[in-house]
Amino acid sequence: MDFDVSGPGTDNRLVEAAADGEDQAVEAALRPKDLEEFIGQERVREQLDLVLRAARARGATADHVLLSGGPGLGKTTLSMIIAAEMGAPIRITSGPAIQHAGDLAAILSSLTEGEVLFLDEIHRMSRPAEEMLYMAMEDFRVDVIVGKGPGATAIPLELPPFTLVGATTRAGLLPPPLRDRFGFTGHMEFYGPAELERVIHRSAGLLDVRIETEGAAEIAGRSRGTPRIANRLLRRVRDYAQVKTDGLITREVAAAALQVYEVDARGLDRLDRAVLTALLKLFGGGPVGLSTLAVAVGEERETVEEVAEPFLVREGLLARTPRGRVATPAAWDHLGLTPPNGAGPAQQGLFGG
């Protein structure tokens, strides 16, 4: 099959791991309520269970928790489970929403004892707020600055004990003083096909969708190791099955539905294939600079680098080298193309970035 390499567009990507309004609404209904019901992430679940049980046994507030990993793997769900396991309310906010220390002070001063504060994308919080958070996490107090200039005074404000749950997709951007203040750090791994099949069967039961084991396996294989994507694909395949067939999701129905939505057997969508096709057909497999590759597919440089590349690299279809982006032998095989003589990782770069 020959794919167009121009103007793929990234709006409403079916395999995008970020959550939109529809995903958030559905996730609320599908979200597990306790650790036992949570599928996958066995090591993190076991470790977190020990932390929470010990805190309950002591009658104390749970230690601060940092959860890292890609979007759609369950960090928000685990934060809600932490609050439920501790019998505490939860407050949800995000790093981009806290641009000033005063924003954080307002949130912290309104917390109740034992409350869980979930701070998503914690790496995007402003530096002044970040420095205030150090003291709040360690000493449960903040200094509120009143006035400006030489006459400014710091008024200490005592805070009730609380549990901060920070979530980040880029743990390396967190400064060491902030990382060190978390009592427990859990790294969320991408899911395997068997775990995703369990997620799909559970969600199908909650959504009252009839699905065969082979149908669930077909969807799981195209879900890019991410439960959120698996649930989104399940809903789209459900729509196809209701309109085109008797509503039962079989392997054939799932494959036909996802072909309509341009999600191939490996989970690549139109943007992913456009990047690979441009790299292979226009530049002989590379190396090619990122900016040049982005122009070839009609996208911004940041879109190619942050949206398409991570999955292609993880799948072993593309490699980042000092000379530029290079296609692997698996990329040629996946698109059914034959590499020209001399193409591949050993080829010398001719295209700048």
Automatic annotation (TrEMBL):
Its EC number is 3.6.4.-. Residues 192-262 are annotated as: Small ATPAse domain (RuvB-S). It catalyses: ATP + H2O = ADP + phosphate + H(+). It comes from the Bacteria. DNA binds at R301, R320, R325. Residues 11-191 are annotated as: Large ATPase domain (RuvB-L). Residues 265-353 are annotated as: Head domain (RuvB-H). It is found in: Cytoplasm. One of its GO terms (molecular function) is DNA helicase activity. InterPro entries: AAA+_ATPase, AAA_lid_4, DNA_helicase_Holl-junc_RuvB, P-loop_NTPase, RuvB-like_N, RuvB_wg_C, WH-like_DNA-bd_sf, WH_DNA-bd_sf. Residues 61-194 form the AAA+ ATPase domain. It is an enzyme of class 3 (hydrolase). ATP binds at L30, R31, G72, K75, T76, T77, E138, D139, F140, R181, Y191, R228. SMART domains: AAA (SM00382). The RuvA-RuvB-RuvC complex processes Holliday junction (HJ) DNA during genetic recombination and DNA repair, while the RuvA-RuvB complex plays an important role in the rescue of blocked DNA replication forks via replication fork reversal (RFR). RuvA specifically binds to HJ cruciform DNA, conferring on it an open structure. The RuvB hexamer acts as an ATP-dependent pump, pulling dsDNA into and through the RuvAB complex. RuvB forms 2 homohexamers on either side of HJ DNA bound by 1 or 2 RuvA tetramers; 4 subunits per hexamer contact DNA at a time. Homohexamer. Forms an RuvA(8)-RuvB(12)-Holliday junction (HJ) complex. HJ DNA is sandwiched between 2 RuvA tetramers; dsDNA enters through RuvA and exits via RuvB. An RuvB hexamer assembles on each DNA strand where it exits the tetramer. Each RuvB hexamer is contacted by two RuvA subunits (via domain III) on 2 adjacent RuvB subunits; this complex drives branch migration. In the full resolvosome a probable DNA-RuvA(4)-RuvB(12)-RuvC(2) complex forms which resolves the HJ. Belongs to the RuvB family. PANTHER family: HOLLIDAY JUNCTION BRANCH MIGRATION COMPLEX SUBUNIT RUVB, PTHR42848. This is Holliday junction branch migration complex subunit RuvB. It comes from Streptomyces meridianus. The gene is ruvB.
